[in-house]
Amino acid sequence: MDLSYGSRYDDFREEVRSFIETHRHLAAPDWDVSDRTKLQEWQQLLIEQGYVGRTIPKQYGGYGAEPDILEARIIADEFARAGITQGFSGQGIAYLMPALLAMGTDEQKERFIPPTLRAEMLWCEGYSEPNAGSDLASLKTSAVLDGDEWVVNGQKIWTSTAESADWMFCLVRTEPDAPRHKGISFLLFSMKSPGIEVVPLKTMSGTHQFNEVFFKDVRVPKDQIVGQRGDGWKVANLVLEHEREDLGDPNFTQQRLNFLIDLMKTETVDGRRLIDIPVYRDRLMQFQAEVMALRFNDLRLLSAKLHNKNATLASMVMKLQGCEVRHELEGFAIDVLGEHGLLYEDAPYVRNDGSWQANYMFNLGLIIGGGTAQIQKNIISERGLAMPREPRPAS
Amino acid sequence: MEFGLSQEQTLLQDSVVQYLNGAAPLDRIKRFVNNCEPRADDVWSGMVDLGIPSLIIAEEHGGIGCELLDAALVAESLGSCAAPVPFAATAVMVPWAIAEAGSDEQQLRWLPKLAEGEVIAGAAVTEAISTRLDAGVHANGDTLSGRALFAIDFEADVYLIADRDLSLYLVDADASGLRRRPLTTIDKTRRYGELVFENVQADRLPGSSDPEVCRRVIDAGRIILAADTLGASQRMLNKAVNYSKERMQFGRPIGSFQAVKHMCAEMAAQLEPCRAMMWYAAHAFDARPEEARLTICHTKSHLSEVGKFIARTSTEVHGGIGFTDELGLHYWFKRIGANRQLLGGPTQLREEAAMRQGLVEA
Question: What ipTM goes with this model?
């Protein structure tokens, strides 16, 4: 056990902190892509400092540092502590770039990584289909080679940011006669290609938007495939690994817990602060313990990565547990607010801009998205506990 | 930065489990319980050979000088084996208190003997944090009167006692005026009892006038109990998973049904993060005392809740056979239940956690 990072890292932390202090007024919000100039200027500044694309090779527009897990953690911690975004980190940067680095050709890396990193090329992810959710490998959107081009037909759903994205990375079936997992390929194409239609899909919370995306004879140059024909499932799994780690992040939940403690200290009912009501306080402490356990688990995963130690089960449980506690915590806040918990959007008397209700609903989406809770339990039991697989139904 | 166990620590756990698998398998536990043996001397002597009682005692007193984390890892192994041996008091709470607050003479007199396992020490400190039935001990100079319930490692040669002011005392088991009565609890793999004092001569630990010492002793005990629950819960989960792979119904192993798989996945998902939490709490006891109490309160309360869920769910996975005395799964079920209540149940610990953060109005 050694919980200190060491003096080299302490110096590095100081450096990040003082950069943030001096430049935080320039920060662009991560989720607002309407002011692209501001976004790209902030992004450029962070790339130059090495806080974005730190380990991306210089030839692809990155900072070119050696991978260092503790440096990466320090940067993330300090930006989170300051409450500003660590640059733009859309699906292209977070999910596609690692996959491209692992499986893309040199030409693809040179063409796609630099503009993606600079937030000049924004991406969306085309995975789920109306009839391919948990059973993603049954997807039917097809791509047929016609001369030097793929011709894509079909439909995607739950595509976040499709309305603002410039490009899509997309799973398509190219080998209809191969076994299901081996018939899928990973294509990249511009959202401006003729034959693409984006239809907004409003969710229950009314605030976070997904889309349906329809493809009719969309023509994609032959070389915009990552990996070989039929490698798509492999590439997709590289992406999903990164995605699941993000969804259950307990450090975000810790911030919400801190907000909740503040709320319960200031909000009163019958002249009593909410925190002074023993049943509420007890439940609050339960959440604190649960979040604490997940944060220490996260610390264990960080250390395991650093020392190449195996912590498979500890990492498998993060999405399931992290999303569950996130959702429940928001629901508890609504409960302690009583009737005020009902208020939403711009209502008078609404607390914290209605974020408890908005997150309560949005976080239910997180329990379902990126592999449902039930799929996570299958993964934990089959891969983590080596329990027998469900027998395949006779086909 | 390294947040994980060293090779030595993993080896320590393996050697304890390996020893107990041989020396205290299920039929030995059953004999201990059914014959109401006060001590399983055969099992204990092997623990002494492994150096277990000397773990946290300083080298100058014949110990190994390890940290509380190492003791907690051993406690995890003991819970995993439902080991019928004393530990929390004799190997952790009492030697820690003597080393922290004892005079040179008290240290010389007790620590080497505790390290060699020659003397077993119990601890009766629970009235210092919550009193029921008017129990409690008061001191008049060097003599104690009153009653202490739920002495841990009850079949002992000497006891650590806290009075109502949280001062600590050592009392010989055969001191005149001391009456001892075993208490029957659900957990028969360890011994608990009541101590009644009528003007009993006691040996006060001079450094214990600061009540913080007694609170730290209780902190240490709480980590050990939480770690025991971690080990017991992990063993119950493993047993459930293994059974589900063997037990056939409807022509297939029950572990291939999603209903059963999801029960096991939920157990693993709740338990696994507790491992890192226990490591941190035990490490913080020595290395980050300012964070320790809050973390320890949450670790014991949270593991008590998770342990309760696993005790129930893993028994359900076994179906009817899990409910029988014969299978013996209930020894772990009851051990988890006992750890939950001892030295503060989850609700009490959560209230202490809130107090610790200034969330409770004075």
Answer: 0.96
Parallel, antiparallel or unpaired: strands A167-173 and A149-157: unpaired
Q: Identify the CATH number of the domain in which residue B165 sits.
A: 2.40.110.10
A185: which 2 tokens? 């390929």
Domain that holds residue A131: 123-230
Q: Is residue B133 assigned to a domain? A: yes
- pLDDT values of chain B reduced to their tens digit, one per residue, 362 residues: 899 999 999 999 999 999 999 999 999 999 999 999 999 999 999 999 999 999 999 999 999 999 999 999 999 999 999 999 999 999 999 999 999 999 999 999 999 999 999 999 999 998 888 888 888 999 999 999 999 999 999 999 999 999 999 999 999 999 999 999 999 999 999 999 999 999 999 999 999 999 999 999 999 999 999 999 999 999 999 999 999 999 999 999 999 999 999 999 999 999 999 999 999 999 999 999 888 999 999 999 999 999 999 999 999 999 999 999 999 999 999 999 999 999 999 999 999 999 999 999 87
Check B302 against A292: CB less than 8 A apart: yes
Following DSSP, what letter does each residue of A33-48 receive, concatenated? -S-HHHHHHHHHHHHH
Domain assignment present for residue A30? The answer is yes
Look at residue A45 and tell me if it is in a domain: yes
A381: nearest CA partner in chain B: B265
Regarding whether A133 and A200 lie in a shared domain, the answer is: yes
Q: Is the pLDDT of residue A100 over 80?
A: yes
Q: Which residues of A are catalytic?
A: 243
Bridge-partner residues for A185, per DSSP?
Answer: A172
Question: A294 contacts in B (CB within 8 Å)?
Answer: 273
* Å between A18 CA and nearest CA of chain B: 23
Q: A279, A287, A292: which to substitute to probe chain B, counting the most B Cβ within 10 Å? A: A292
Q: Are residues B179 and B218 in the same domain?
A: no
DSSP per-residue string spanning A85-124? -SS---HIIIIIHHHHHHH--HHHHHHHHHHHHTTSS-EE
Residues of A in contact with B302 (CB under 8 A): 286, 289-290, 292-293
Rounded to 5°, angle at Cα A153 from A149 and A157: 125
CA distance A120 to chain B (A): 37
